[in-house]
């Protein structure tokens, strides 16, 4: 196999293998923002992508999909339970999202995490060309940078962390806190979503490992100085803008409104069904507005898309029960034969249908309790070329640092959320348009291409500095 100049390492391949009930194999774009963010960049370089195909015990040879060379990593059923559902999504995920759910600490999970990280690191080390570049992604693979460095000291290594990095007070709970920091410090550039995440990481490295830190760099005992910096991720805005102009999709948006009984206002929530997203808080606020008669189901409909996610992890199963109980109660109390209060869709949808929903939505509700970035907020903005619609945005998202003209809320403050919903519904068109113009400017200028370019520029620079040090 030809060695690749550029290797992306992520838990998931950009496509998942799906076996249909009649035994047919299909490849479908993976869930999550990462794939959408990297795909455009990957097509334009001679690269390879190391990742998992989303199923247990799949032994597949490297293959090409949509012009990207894919190198599948095999995970056993036990490893999926311990490394993916366990350590990644029941230890790190809740801990890094400010312990919204209690993190579970199990030594077997940690051991599986180390083992699987080693497998990803070896695959990347085998694939990358002499002096090439490896870009590692996200919290499932925090040990990979150090492992790749051990195997291939000649390559330049980047790491981007897509989720929050917590304050030291919380991070310190992790029994393997020092090992994880050392794992990340194997990279030449360590990127975070927000300046606060980078600062939290630097503070942890300083406190725990006594490394000397400056504003955005850290000096390691071996003389290396990794760059630690915020690179806020974004979306590829082009497909959203294009789809939003398509007559059939615009017609579909009208049809969606009609299907809801032509309410005056449509509220929309779009999330993976995850406890970090504040779905319960949003439902509660909407339910209370109905209870109090501040809005009616005839006038204000609420669509909640909650795509299935991590369904075998306990905290996600409980969340689903709670969300569905709450929605059932509100609908039971307030539905009429002609109008439903909350149209709940526990499904994923193709992008075309998502854009139609964004176009139909007068108010977009992003009420996450903690979120690395939140790309849904940016997708909504990208579709609204008509400069209509209001984005209600939690201040606990990375997106809130950039999208200043959204209606900002604290999702824990239910009265505040209720007032923001009413404020959004009542917002005069001129103000909607003023805010949306400013939001669009920001999102269109800082798209995913700008993000990957700026990360890769930093990485290139780091690579040059490293080579000079080696030669000198
Ligand atoms: C978040 C994470 C991604 C992850 C995605 C979907 O966006 O940052 O790394 O891929 O969620 O979650 P899943 O567990 O299905 O990969």
TrEMBL record:
TM region positions: none
InterPro entries per record: Glyco_trans_20
Family: Belongs to the glycosyltransferase 20 family.
UniProt organism field: Microbacterium commune
Protein name (database record): Trehalose-6-phosphate synthase
Domain of life: Bacteria
Stored Pfam families: Glyco_transf_20
